[in-house]
Design goal:
CATH superfamily of the largest domain: Winged helix-like DNA-binding domain superfamily/Winged helix DNA-binding domain
Order of helices and strands: EEEHHEHHEH
Low-confidence stretches: none
Strand order of the largest sheet: 1-2-3
CATH class of the largest domain: Mainly Alpha
CATH topology of the largest domain: Arc Repressor Mutant, subunit A
Helix content: 25-40%
Distance between the termini: 38 Å
Strand content: 15-25%
Radius of gyration: 15 Å
Number of helices: 5
Length: 148
């Protein structure tokens, strides 16, 4: 695996590449183990997202398999500045809302696969980044989303 990172407005982030796919986003600066065209492009797209110039990532990602892959693909359909509930995603993928929540929590590529755009019906939901839901709220504010 190859790693590289940047410091953004929400703290340090690192990307992990394996076999020509991005497989992870880490909430820390990784020990750089090389630079590839994919990592360079991924970091450039993250910087553009942080600057408000990019609203949709266009990168080769490892989607995973099964329900996790279905939920991840559904999350990437949520437009910048909008949210969906666990229940709405559940209906889309044909799974229980609790399973969708677990799939969101297992997302290895937060921000790139925008799990921060998924909330509960009358609650915020969780978030795995340092700062937890405060970071989730900051990402949603960055995108201009209405917060609960």
């Amino acid at each position: 695996m190859i790693r590289a990172g940047i410091v953004g407005p929400f703290g340090p982030v690192g990307l992990v590449e394996r076999d020509g796919l991005l497989v992870g986003l880490e909430w820390r600066l990784p020990e750089v183990s090389g630079q590839t065209a994919l990592l360079s492009e991924g970091l450039a797209q993250l910087a553009a997202y942080f600057d408000g110039r990019l609203r949709r990532f266009d990168l080769p990602l490892d989607w995973g398999t099964g329900l996790n892959a279905d939920v991840r693909r559904a999350m990437t359909k949520i437009p910048w500045g909008e949210t969906r509930t666990y229940g709405q995603i559940a209906k889309e993928v044909g799974a229980p809302a609790q399973s969708v929540g677990q799939a969101c929590g297992a997302n290895p590529l937060p921000i790139l696969i925008p799990c921060h755009r998924v909330t509960g019906t009358n609650w915020f939901g969780g978030f795995s980044a340092p700062g937890g839901v405060e970071t989730k709220a900051a990402l949603l504010r960055h995108e201009g989303a209405l917060l609960i």
